[in-house]
């Protein structure tokens, strides 16, 4: 069910939500969090689709703030429940920047009582999350540095302004890389690490984060090479670790990674790129501080920059 409210207020939206619960059996029981999504009108439906799908594992009330460039200064709203909202309730607020100057007052009356608040910016995001209007309300704040105008510069700003609860999809995208690398390296922990290299795009925040994480774990500088076999790399292509006994090499092509390591036959495994949905589901699974991510931002990323 989709209910549209034109030239409305948040009080009227909240009242309508209550009416829908009473008349149609729509309930907020079982919702585990409030998810505030800030995006542009052109990216609205993709953001709602991703949040709805994530709600199947993390039932939520989803409040979407969709910024438009129209001159009108009123608020339009849309409520989606039932089959149009997955396992969630979706409230979409459409307004221009003038109306959105006081976002807190717009959304505070729509939040679930006594439930965690998560803020998600699937596209453009503020560089100082904890001081943004939405960020100050939320205990967990999720961005996607890869979707910013200058991804690597944005990542450095995240590090400079980091607060507990901050998270980024660029970090979540390398979860499978980190798991594979940790499993492979475990058999060679007694070997001296000579050097290490990540083959990844120079403008990929995930490549920089992987190099920073690997450098901290190995205790050595990890370089970032944007070419592989004379080809420009897009995203992350692979990792090489030079050991005193030989070389560990992991190379991804499409969804498969080929692993070559000392004393073992060449093997292969699945290492598919992660979707926005995969990342959001993982980020919503744990609402506390990601201490490893914080360490990488505050220590490993600086070390990576020194070696670049």
Structural commentary:
The N and C termini lie far apart (53 Å). An 8-stranded mixed sheet has the order 1-4-5-3-2-6-7-8, sandwiched between helices. It has a 6-stranded mixed sheet with strand order 10-9-13-14-15-16, with helices on one face. The model has no long low-confidence stretch (mean pLDDT 89). The protein has 2 domains: 2-169, 3-Layer(aba) Sandwich (Rossmann fold); 175-270. The chain has helices spanning 10-24, 44-54, 103-107, 151-160, 169-172, 175-185, 205-218, 276-285, 291-307, and strands spanning 2-8, 33-40, 60-67, 75-80, 89-95, 117-120, 140-143, 166-168, 193-200, 222-225, 227-228, 231-232, 236-243, 246-253, 256-260, 267-270. Strand 4 and strand 5 (89-95) form a beta hairpin. It is of the alpha/beta class.
Overview features:
alpha/beta; Rossmann fold; eight-stranded mixed sheet; six-stranded mixed sheet
């Amino acid at each position: 069910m989709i209910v549209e409210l034109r030239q409305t207020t948040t009080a009227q939206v909240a009242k309508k939500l209550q009416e829908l619960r009473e008349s149609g059996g729509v309930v907020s029981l079982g919702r585990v969090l409030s998810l505030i999504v800030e995006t542009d009108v052109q990216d609205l439906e993709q953001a709602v689709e991703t949040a709805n799908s994530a709600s199947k594992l993390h039932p939520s009330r989803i409040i979407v703030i969709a910024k438009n460039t129209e001159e009108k200064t009123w608020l339009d709203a849309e409520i989606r429940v039932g089959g149009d909202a997955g396992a969630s309730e979706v409230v979409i607020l459409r307004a221009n920047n003038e109306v959105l100057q006081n976002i807190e007052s717009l959304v505070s009356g729509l939040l679930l009582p006594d439930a965690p608040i998560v803020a998600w910016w699937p596209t453009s995001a503020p560089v100082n999350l904890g001081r943004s209007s939405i960020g100050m309300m939320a205990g967990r704040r999720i961005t996607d540095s890869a979707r910013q105008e200058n991804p690597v510069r944005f990542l450095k700003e995240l590090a400079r302004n980091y607060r507990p609860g901050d998270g980024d999809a660029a970090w979540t995208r390398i979860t499978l890389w980190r798991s594979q690398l940790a499993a492979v390296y475990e058999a060679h922990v007694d070997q001296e690490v000579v050097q290490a290299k990540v083959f990844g795009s120079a403008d990929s925040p995930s490549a920089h984060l992987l190099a920073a994480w690997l450098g901290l774990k190995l205790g050595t500088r990890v370089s970032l090479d944007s070419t592989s076999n004379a080809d420009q790399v897009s995203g992350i292509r692979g990792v090489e670790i030079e050991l005193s006994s030989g070389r560990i090499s992991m190379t991804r092509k499409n969804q498969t990674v080929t692993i070559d390591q000392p004393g073992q036959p060449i093997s292969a495994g699945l290492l598919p790129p992660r979707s926005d949905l995969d990342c959001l589901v993982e980020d919503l699974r744990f609402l506390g501080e990601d201490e490893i991510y914080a360490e990488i931002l505050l220590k490993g990323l600086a070390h990576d920059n020194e070696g670049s």
